[in-house]
Amino acid sequence: MQAFRPWENPLSSGTLEISPVAVGPPGWEVSTMSAGESGVQTRARAASRAVGISRVYGTGDTSVTALDDVSVEFEEGRFTAVMGPSGSGKSTLLHCMAGLDRVTAGEVWIGDVELGRLSDRQLTILRREQVGFVFQAYNLLPTLTAAENIALPLRIAGRRPDRAWYDRVVGAVGLRGRLEHRPSELSGGEQQRVAGARALVAKPTIIFADEPTGNLDSVAGAEMLGFMRRSVDEFGQTIVMVTHDPNAAGHADRVVFLADGRVVDDMAEPTAELVLDRMKRFGD
Ligand code: ADP
Ligand code: MG
Q1: What local confidence, expressed as pLDDT, does residue 37 receive?
Q2: Which of 4, 114, 236, 265 could share a disulfide with 147, CB 3.0–4.6 Å?
Q3: Pocket of ligand 1 contains residue 214 by CB under 6 Å
Q4: Under a CB-based contact definition with an 8 Å cutoff, are residues 251 and 229 in contact?
């Protein structure tokens, strides 16, 4: 079988006619360069932020408030972990911030675009162009090789992967010898690194990962965490990762703690020990 070379594939025809610029408000491109110009704004620019978001599932007596007035910013080029007890709203937060779910109240921004203003079609395009998502269960297409899985989002978008970038991502993920294998021929750790490469190859504004090491043994988990850390340090990628594991959170630059759908703490420069200590005080 001939090796799959995504950069040589012809573009798929005319699926995309709205550019990401067209979905943004006026000033989209200009405002991305304005951070700090006023002399007031000294913090790093937020790749994504939530402003007073709530998410209520169902109505009436059976309704569940999964997120309750959450405001949080994720700065560019940082690796943030989100932790909290089971049911505290971590997955809901990620889904809402990634545009996979709609909020009940409040605003979600990716860069300078507020997701609530977008039509479903515009949201799909924004997600495709600007958001990477890594699921606990990998979610690869079983009939495609690793290389084809990695390039799939770009091909759907009608974009040709930049070959040098594709090679760097494949190198960073440590999968060079495994690219022609299908998911069933790969270990869990390899499959998750394929999913990581798939998220990274489109150079998204932000990658959300929901318990990406949850199905992996400690060695495979450490490799995945190493890959995410390098993506931030070497490529400037912004990553937000939900995890239960204090060791995983110790790889991040920051930990946001949720409980009962609210942000209850925010820790800079976490270590596994500090995170474990903080978790003990959740009292459950
Ligand atoms: P976590 O990821 O922290 O475990 P989730 O965000 O999955 O928490 O869930 C937060 C709360 O919202 C839980 O009480 C959960 O049962 C509820 N929930 C999540 N998704 C749905 C849904 N689709 N319908 C109804 N309730 C939901
Ligand atoms: Mg969850």
Answers
A1: 46
A2: 4
A3: no
A4: yes
